Amino acid sequence: GAGVSQSPSNKVTEKGKDVELRCDPISGHTALYWYRQRLGQGLEFLIYFQGNSAPDKSGLPSDRFSAERTGESVSTLTIQRTQQEDSAVYLCASSLGGQRLTQYFGPGTRLLVL
Amino acid sequence: RKEVEQDPGPFNVPEGATVAFNCTYSNSASQSFFWYRQDCRKEPKLLMSVYSSGNEDGRFTAQLNRASQYISLLIRDSKLSDSATYLCVVNALSGNTGKLIFGQGTTLQVKP
To answer: Could you tell me which residues of chain B have a Cβ less than 8 Å from any Cβ in chain A?
Structure first.
């Protein structure tokens, strides 16, 4: 079946502009996660959605970062007033939720802020 | 102390070698453990779950030591295609149980 998809695959923007990244999880997966991975670094947790529960936003690095999710489907991660240090790969993952923890990742969006 | 710690490596081994990675975790109440693999410029993919009694999948063997809070991955008869970064993953128990904590990864380079 279809895996997690993300768009765009690459995004180049100028410092100060806003960007919106999209994630389509695997159908039926109630949990959705966003991570950031800087070049040569590990995964940095950003935010976690589980069904209708309040999202876990504990990983968002600043108030310039926000994410929304429509029901149990598409999610968008928005970065306002981008900075050069926001340049990274943004990875989305989904899982069946609850105690079913195995996460399946999308291919990521490579963001470059000039 | 990091919640999940791994030796970043790189581990450089010849084809056919056996190599082992260890990972330690800080939360003694963690219940779920995984190894993920990440190829260069690709997304992480599940390699295997780690069960209490240890488990094997072909050339890969995972072990869990709850008393010492560490997890290991053993790769036998290394192939060139095993070259990747191996991520140790543990579930977080503070708040939402659905959250996983990823280690920084251990890089393996298998040489001909």
So the answer is: 32, 34, 42-46, 49, 87, 91, 95-105
Q: What is the pLDDT of residues B43-71, one digit of tens each?
A: 999 999 999 889 999 999 999 999 999 99
Question: CA–CA separation, B13 vs A77, rounded Å?
Answer: 40
Residue A5: count of CB within 10 angstroms of its CB: 15
Non-local (6+) Cβ contacts of A74 within 8 A are A22, A23, A24, A25
Tokens of residue A13, six digits: 């923007």
**pLDDT by residue (tens digit) across A45-97?**
999 998 888 899 999 999 999 999 988 889 999 999 999 999 999 999 999 88
Q: Which amino acid is at A69?
A: R
